Amino acid sequence: MMGLPLAFTEPLLLIGLVSLPVLWWLLRVMPPRPRRIEFPPTRLLFDIAPREETPSRTPWWLTALRLLAAALVIFAAAGPIWNPQVGLAASKAPLMIMLDDGWSAASNWDTRIRAADELIANAENDRRGIALVPLSEPNRDITLMPAGAARVALRQFVPKPYSIERVETLTAIDRFLKATGDCEIAWLSDGVDTGRGEEFVAGLGRTMGDRSLTLFEGGTSSPLALVAAENAAAKMTVKVLRTDSGILAGTVRALDQKASPIGEARFTFGPQDKEVDAAFDLPVELRNDISRLEISGERSAGAVQLLDKRWRRRAIGIVSGSTSETSQPLLAPTFYLTRALAPFADVRLADKGAPQQGITQFLDQKLPMIILADVGTVAPDLRERLNAWIAQGGVLVRFAGPRLAQAEDDLVPVKLRKGGRTLGGSLTWEKPQHLASFTPDGPFAGVAVPKDVTVSRQVLAEPDAVLATKSWASLEDGTPLVTGEHRGKGIVSLFHVSADMRWSDLPMSGTFVEMLRRVVDMSGYTAKPGPGVATEATAETLAPLHMLDGFGAFGPPPATAKPLTADYRDRATPDHPPGYYGPAEGPLAVNTLAAADRIAALNTAPLHARRATYTNAEPRDLRGWLLSTSLALFLIDALIVALLGGGLAALLRRRAAPAMILLGVLLAGVAVLSPTPSRADGVSDEFAMKSTSQTRLAYVVTGNADVDSIVKAGMSGLTLFLAQRTALEAGDPVGVDPARDELAFFPLIYWPIVPGQPKPPQDAINKIEAYMKQGGTVIFDTRDAVEAPPGDNGAAQTPGMQALREILSSLDVPELEPVPREHVLTKTFYLLRDFPGRFNSGQTWVETLPREDDDESAQRPARGGDGVSPIIITSNDLAGAWALRPDGQPMLPLTPGEPRQREFAYRAGVNIVMYTLTGNYKADQVHAPALIERLGQ
């Protein structure tokens, strides 16, 4: 109705509004004037001041009040509905619902499912068959089904994490419509054109013919997407895309591999902007740790940009064999290499000292790529180190020069002739040679061949059977300009010209920059290996590792995901959904959109369709509100009439006491019915003050009175032990409800698991997960170690562990391991080997820490990791061992009751508390004797 989400069940009753002018006239009519009769004694009454006056006409504002009350009654009778369900055209024909289910529909997926559910409900009332057509599945068989089956099928649909090709479903739609005949169509569109949108709209118009179409679009926020992340020299940028107009601001978050935040970048769209840049001004070390960019508040795979090694600014070492005393800065090979690599890499020069020292320095720094510019002979021991470094994944790039032309070296991809080929020399050509081509399957494939690059001198490769397979770029006479091959996991490449302008003008061209960029990309799993690899081994394929779903969350790979080649650079597809592929230590990232992709608004104007918008709220009947308001206006009218007529004043004079009593009762009723202050205003402030005034331990209130009393006594006993044995004087422990209370006040929360209790609500789970992500630690204690059946997997079969598994199924729990002997938790305050409680047969689990090399682990007394484990799991009933009666005696017996078991249980609690409060400082403190000894030396 006039652009408002308002409809009427009986719109004809609105005709009653026409009667309002007549009602206005009736209310303004005065009664007939009485006859005037002269009566002389009446003159005496004129000198008496009247106490009350009655107006001769009804005031206009009172008349307007009455008209408004009458209008509200008419509106209520018409049955107004706010956010009405959008109905279809009156028909008994089957209904076909087309649903956009690509990544662009994910951000408002619930709204689309609600709209589809309403269409199914309306069709069910008319006893119509329903066909569901997800536009991401062109091979899906389209069939009619009853409403109940359609609802079940609808709930199984989820948004796909890639762009859908709507055009491919036209064949199946055409086949269904021809077989069905008369059919009504509803298209739940996301309004985004990711390619071929006009073709689909035109094809749908031809396919549907004169059938009725209802198009749902608008009413929801436009989806946002991320593309073209670039780690430049000064900052990392990423483009934010949208399809609509208007001013819009938001935030892009940068996360590392553990989903920990690294930084945020703001972006702001102008009124007509379709894409803007978000920039992260961070140190290069932090930017290299970024593995995921995402738009805050946007739930879609398109709003996520995954990063891998290709986006890291690699540190590249350059070693020059030229003499520093005779080399001029602007003519040195390092000058051109530095300028070419600076836009996408961090260059480190080793221009002081011998080349062997520079190579050793860069090998010690474990750089992923080293460039040797005219370095001739390499010492045998250093050559062995270089070969080992290349086999482990290093990329060695060499440039020719006088020294390399005279040397005999196996650190080149092909065998070289001694000496060089010079214009006018013994191996000569009549004029400088031009660059002819790049190998189609080499790393430089797709790079435009420059016409202005010439070569006047080069080192020649010995012809052999595999020379052609190792050539990446060739001159017009067929001789190779660049060669390369794989060695182990690494690559050796050779530019057969120098890195300066003496032999070629290639270093002055833009092609030189792009060629080096391609070579730098080869230092990761995503590089193209080049033809030399293709002949020696098959192209490397990477299996799916972690996939994004349509909402941008990680999950296991679907059954339809297929491996891809290591040089895959395209956007995500149904066969290759977005996510990570390959080994966990160096995966390949595949994103929903490619760097060059853009999105636009879908133009559906050519379609002859009824237009409907999505609604984000449930339908609401306004009749009750309108009738209540009308009744209130009539009561106000009655009070005003009583005031104007003096009746209310007379009533108050006669009934003053009852009137005051009635007024008091009304005020008391209003006070009772008024809303009480929320917990967040009153009680929560008191809770916050109590929780932050002292360091306090917390425990989760389970609702089981026996368990809660034992846990409270146990946490109180541990707090007393801490005050007696440590410098920590904590306050009384606090029982918390995760769904209601703020958890950030507490460093440690103890959660006793009670089998058979219902799973906590999702809000509580979300708050626990946020608490753990922000540095808090939760101890989950199943308290059932003695109930575990015998066997290696017996502990996992207890009722308490089953209940814990149900809780953890909704939490993002890190990989866990039993507490290792060298873990810092065993040394935080006391030296412990295990963590007993009321029982001592259960294991204690913490977050898995990265393992060091065996030799280093043997020399390191403690492993601390990067922080405190957010989760500790045990079954030893720690609180039961800590619990004390009011007289100070233990509340519960121990099993098996070994000597000092309760003492060690308290010590375990002290270590856990100190671990959560102080972190992993002990991992460094245990090295203090060795450090002091070295300082003394």
Compact summary:
With 937 residues, the protein is an alpha/beta fold.
Protein architecture, described:
It is a single chain. This protein is an alpha/beta fold. Helices cover 30% and strands 18% of the residues. It is built from 26 helices and 41 strands. Strand 27 and strand 28 form a beta hairpin. Helix 1 (20-28) runs antiparallel to helix 2 (60-77). The relative contact order is 0.07. Mean pLDDT is 82; it is low at 423-427, 525-538, 674-683 and 853-865.
Helix fraction bin: 25-40%
Oligomeric state of shown chains: single chain
- Treating each run of at least 4 consecutive H or I residues as one helix, how many helices? 26
Task: Please state roughly what percent of the residues sit in beta strands, choosing from under 5%, 5-15%, 15-25%, 25-35%, 35-45% or over 45%.
Answer: 15-25%
Round the mean pLDDT to the nearest integer and report it: 82
**Rg calculated over all Cα atoms:** 40 Å
Query: Biggest sheet, open or closed, and with what strands and sense?
Result: 9 strands, mixed
Shape label: globular
pLDDT < 50 runs, ≥5 residues:
423-427, 525-538, 674-683, 853-865
State the separation between the terminal residues, measured CA to CA.
Answer: 88 Å
Number of strands: 41
Can you list the strand order of the major beta sheet?
16-15-17-18-25-24-23-20-21
Class per helix and strand makeup: alpha/beta
Keywords:
18% strand, 26 helices, 937 residues, alpha/beta
In terms of topology, how is this protein built?
Layout: E1 6-8, H1 20-28, H2 60-77, E2 80-82, E3 95-99, H3 109-125, E4 130-134, H4 147-155, H5 170-180, E5 184-188, E6 192-193, H6 197-208, E7 213-216, E8 225-231, E9 236-241, E10 248-255, E11 261-269, E12 275-280, H7 284-289, E13 292-295, E14 304-306, E15 314-320, H8 333-341, E16 345-349, H9 355-364, E17 369-373, H10 380-391, E18 395-399, H11 402-406, E19 421-422, E20 433-438, E21 454-455, E22 457-458, H12 467-470, E23 471-475, E24 480-487, E25 490-495, H13 510-521, H14 531-534, E26 541-542, E27 544-548, E28 554-555, E29 564-565, E30 579-581, E31 588-590, E32 600-601, E33 610-612, E34 620-621, H15 623-645, H16 647-654, H17 656-673, H18 683-693, E35 698-700, H19 705-725, E36 734-736, E37 748-752, H20 762-773, E38 777-781, H21 799-808, E39 816-818, E40 845-847, H22 854-859, E41 871-874, H23 878-882, H24 901-918, H25 922-925, H26 928-936
Parallel strand pairs: 3-4, 3-5, 5-7, 7-33, 15-16, 15-17, 17-18, 18-25, 35-36, 35-37, 37-38, 38-41
Antiparallel strand pairs: 1-2, 2-34, 6-32, 8-9, 9-12, 10-11, 10-13, 13-14, 19-22, 20-21, 20-23, 23-24, 24-25, 26-29, 27-28, 27-30, 30-31, 39-40
